[in-house]
Amino acid sequence: MHQINNLKQLQPKDATKWLPTQPYNLDVITALAVFTLCVLYNQMFGQEKTRRRKPPSVENHTSSMKFFVPSSFGKNADALKFKATAQKDVSAKSKKNKKKKNKKPASDNGFSGKGPLAPPPMEDDGDETMNAIKTVKDGKVVKKKTKKQKQQQQNQLKATPALRQAVKESLSKTHDDDDDTPTTSAAGSGINSFQAKLKEQLMGGRFRFINEQLYTMNSRKAEQLFKSDPEAFKAYHDGYRHQVEKWPLNPLNRIIKMIKKLPKSLEIGDFGCGEGMLAKSVPHKVYSMDLVSCRDDIIACDMANTPLTTHTLDVAVYCLSLMGTNLSDYLLEANRVLKVDGQMYVAEIQTRFDNVKDFVRKLDSFGFQLVKQDVGQKVFYFFQFKKVRNVGKVANLPAMSLKPCLYRKR
């Protein structure tokens, strides 16, 4: 556009007073006019749009949210777009819940719920259809027994007079008589199996009782116990023999192998020999000692006070025989009868030890030095000691004790 030097010529004469005498730039005037029109348009139509717009509800607030980048960021700006999350219809849920609440439970047993931990429904004895339902037990489908089958089972379990008389006669007989008289009937074989099982339970119960007493009393009282009841020793060793069969390893067999490697001229003392199996298994001279003598070659004595002379033994063996509350007396007696540099073999159950190092340290006070040990076994610990010096019985020694080995009561 061309500039006009004098605007007075284009305006009426009445407006000459307010017109400026200086020339204006038409581009600036045009920009101001456009700006003014934009402001007026925004004031007129912008307010009406805001009045018509309703405030968003709280429920649909997340779905109506929109994120955008203004155009002033430029064409190269990356716009962020978020998809609106779909909202579940709450009203539809409430209707479904009402319908579920109105439904009656399938059973009247007071329990509800589904799943593997839910209680089974109670059966109605009066309903014949419920009695025919199959139940699952131990992974097998078993039909419910009828009343007739239940009555037959109860009759089979009832003891008849003939069966009672047969039980009395079999219990009155001794075990040797039972072996001599063969049974021909099925009832007789059943009675014998029942009798054998009953005897085994009684034998195990008496063994556990005697075993607990031997671990919780000193050797002098244990000697008096077997003197007052001679059958107790036999009952104890019968139960002990039955327990040995269940062990993964018999510790006496390992000690026998070790002694067989020693010179045959050595004299050995078996403290707590039981039935004297060590003397039968090795070619050495063995002094077998226990509280009761079941053979002529076994010496009946208290292991804390044996009749052996001083410094006569080359080897002392304690295989599961450190029983009682006076273990210090046993070890002092072993120190008395052993020669200097004599060997002592100890085998004990690993559950009796709280601290193996403490056990070895205390034995050093009794004049025994550790040579070899095997504490890697699951059930038993094995030790080999050497006597290094003589210790008198009046010496001031630490108290020696191990935990008692008690079997579970059934």
Verbal overview:
The protein is an alpha/beta fold. Helices cover 41% and strands 13% of the residues. It has helices at residues 26-52, 61-64, 90-102, 128-131, 147-157, 161-172, 175-180, 186-215, 219-228, 230-244, 251-260, 277-281, 327-337, 356-365; strands spanning 135-137, 140-142, 267-271, 285-290, 298-300, 313-319, 338-349, 368-374, 380-387. Helix 6 crosses helix 8 (186-215) and helix 8 packs across helix 10 (230-244).
Features:
410 residues, alpha/beta, 7-stranded mixed β-sheet, two-stranded antiparallel sheet, 14 helices, 13% strand
Which helices and strands occur, and which strands form pairs?
Layout: H1 26-52, H2 61-64, H3 90-102, H4 128-131, E1 135-137, E2 140-142, H5 147-157, H6 161-172, H7 175-180, H8 186-215, H9 219-228, H10 230-244, H11 251-260, E3 267-271, H12 277-281, E4 285-290, E5 298-300, E6 313-319, H13 327-337, E7 338-349, H14 356-365, E8 368-374, E9 380-387
Parallel strand pairs: 3-4, 3-6, 4-5, 6-7
Antiparallel strand pairs: 1-2, 7-9, 8-9
